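Quarterly update, task 2.4: adenosine-5'-diphosphate-bound model.
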Amino acid sequence: VRTRLQLLASSYRLRLALGYMVVVALVAGLWGWSLFGPITDAVIEQQQTHLQGVAQAAALVLGAPDVEITPAVAELVKGTDLRMTVVAADGAVLADSAEDPGSMENHSGRPEIRMALEGSVGRDIRESATQGIEQMYVAVPARYARERVALRVSESLERIGEIGAQTRRTGLALLGVALVLALIVGLRIATLAARPIERLAQSATTMASGDLGVSVPAESGALAPLASALSTLRTQLRERLGALETERTNLHTVVDGLADAILLLDGEQISVSNRAASDLLALPVNGVAGRSLADSGLPASLIAAIRDRLNPTRAGSTEVGPDPRGRSLRLTIAPLDRSGAERTLVIISDITDRTRVERMRRDFVANASHELKTPTAAILLLAESAENAAADDDEAQALAFVGQIGQEAARLRQLVIDLLDLSRLETPIVQGAVTDLREAVDLSLSAHSRAASTKGLDLKADFSAVENEDVFAAADRTDIAIALDNLLANAIAYTDSGEVRVVVDATGDIVKLVVSDTGMGIPTEDLQRVFERFYRVDRSRVRDSGGTGLGLSLVRHAVERAGGKVSIESATGEGTRATITLPRAR
Ligand code: ADP
């Protein structure tokens, strides 16, 4: 653009200068042409008059008596370019200063001679028959030896032509000088005139190259409206671009703020991608805009799923995964233009968490149903057996079956209690709840004292570390009760002899509850998993303990929702030690 504008400006200058030159050439040419003819005519006229004077003077000389004509004629034009001829009344040449009169033809036919013989002055310009060059002739009547003769003086026009040529040369030289001056002056004026145009062109060029900060010079005169229009254009452009930029940034922020990955496809070309796309799909930080699907770095399974829905485009969602990073994704395809289906919006959401929760829920329902089914089936079977024993009057056997029915019913009840506790722990926590740990431990111990004494176990609480201190935990008392009850139940259930002890401790902002026993312990390889729902170390143990496999998961759930932690240390045959830490309340 720049060079084209410059070219335009320079050609504008040249055109202006050339215009000047044409005007000067026309004026000078017309002037020269109008003067040249009259000047030539005047010179000829002047020369003819001169020749006439010479002829008349010579006629006087010839008229004198006893003149010898040939030497007189020669003498009269001696030392000049003139030629003198004397012609008799019959046209015979009597004397000539240049030729031998004998060799010359009869001159009666020459117009100037004829006129002179008739008594007036004759003039003519023609090519000389004898010399072959343009001649100017002037003839006057004269007398020689009392006879009427014509005396003619002639001169070559060559000289006059030379004067004309000289005049023409000078004129052309002057014209040349005038043209050069016109060119110089024209260029100078054009430069002055072109400068503001070039300034504006410069501004326009800078604007066109994208720099809208450029100042537009304020011009005066005819260019003022153009300059102000350019300036307004720049301001408006800047404002619009600013508004567009703001809008773009807002849109970008919104798109980047979305949790779902967004890809805008032009055919298979990615034209827009957001931050979530980079995070979720482990794509380069500066996005994949500009790349094609194939080399975007997306997992192959995802590309295949996108392509599957692109050709032909089918709007809607599918689930993909788990991908190599173990995540489940939901892919939603939304074609943007109904016609060509060229542009497509692809939304990819991470549904890993949701999928996991759903799976856990499914597993839980299956496990819980299974756990409920087992004692129920046992009870039905035992009831049938008791009935049969009663029919056979085998009272002892019947009573044994009834006893077992009681055990299965107790297990069922425990399962229902645990499930109720579990659903209770799903309800929102009570904010600002405070529990006195002395009270909670005493209450829990008294609830389990009968079970402990039945097994001959020593069940006791140890508050020695917190003597004379209040020990309050920032937690809901029912949550603490659920945790303590389950830990104590396990300790008593999996200990055959020895003691079960609860130690209460407090350090800084933390309160600690340690439940330890001298029981069978937990094999190291199972320690990791005992907190899982329905996980049991050894199914055969459970028969006797009546455990549901939910106890420790309830403990962890109850403690963690109060902001605390629970851990278990144990080894086979060396007892078990469960530690709960909770934030302290003052
Ligand atoms: P359950 O209701 O079966 O006791 P829990 O979730 O409370 O289920 O415990 C999971 C498993 O951990 C139990 O099946 C048991 O084998 C083992 N366990 C828990 N507490 C103790 C303990 N104090 N001593 C030995 N084993 C334990």
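Highlight for this quarter: The radius of gyration is 66 Å.
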